[in-house]
């Protein structure tokens, strides 16, 4: 039992460190104007594959939204801003800019499309599938839904 508890705690620490390194590394590089390696000259419209549209959200309720908000506050605000408009301190310097989660374009996407984008990432946005659990990523989707204009 103690071994399992230690394993889970170590896994949480590793995931937290990985996300911190990914975010901090991106912010440091962007502060030196080094973004082209991440973004490229033109990435075009970011569309999830058709299969993502069919993904079903396994989470709901106030607890899910609260957990999503907690994760968003610690891991997403630096780029997407506190209100989700893509105006966080690091998001302002990205090319393309950080997404506006309050926009009609984002809110019109299916939960599965948003989940896929969170999981896979693109350009300067880290893919969270190796860092956040599936449950946490669905909780983020549920929180993003509360940001609509």
What report would you give on this structure?
- Helix content is 55%, strand content 0%.
- The protein is an all-alpha fold.
- It has one domain: Orthogonal Bundle (Cytochrome Bc1 Complex, Chain D, domain 2).
- Helix 4 packs across helix 8 (134-145).
- The protein is globular and about 35 Å long.
- The termini are far apart.
- 27% of the residues are buried.
List keywords for this structure.
149 residues; mainly alpha; Cytochrome Bc1 Complex, Chain D, domain 2; 8 helices; globular
Summarize the structure.
The protein has 149 residues and is mostly helical.
CATH level-4 homologous superfamily? Cytochrome c-like domain
Mean pLDDT over all positions:
82
β-strand number: 0
**Global structural class:** mainly alpha
Kindly provide the radius of gyration, computed on alpha-carbon positions and rounded to a whole number of angstroms.
16 Å
The number of helical elements comes to 8
Order of helices and strands: HHHHHHHH
How much of the sequence lies in strands comes to: under 5%
If classified by CATH, what would the architecture be?
Answer: Orthogonal Bundle
Number of structural domains: 1
CATH topology: the name is Cytochrome Bc1 Complex, Chain D, domain 2
Looking at the structure, what is the overall shape? Answer: globular
Oligomer: single chain
Distance between the termini: 47 Å
Roughly what percent helix?
55-70%
Low-confidence spans: 29-41
CATH class: Mainly Alpha
Described by strand count, sense and barrel closure, the largest sheet is:
none
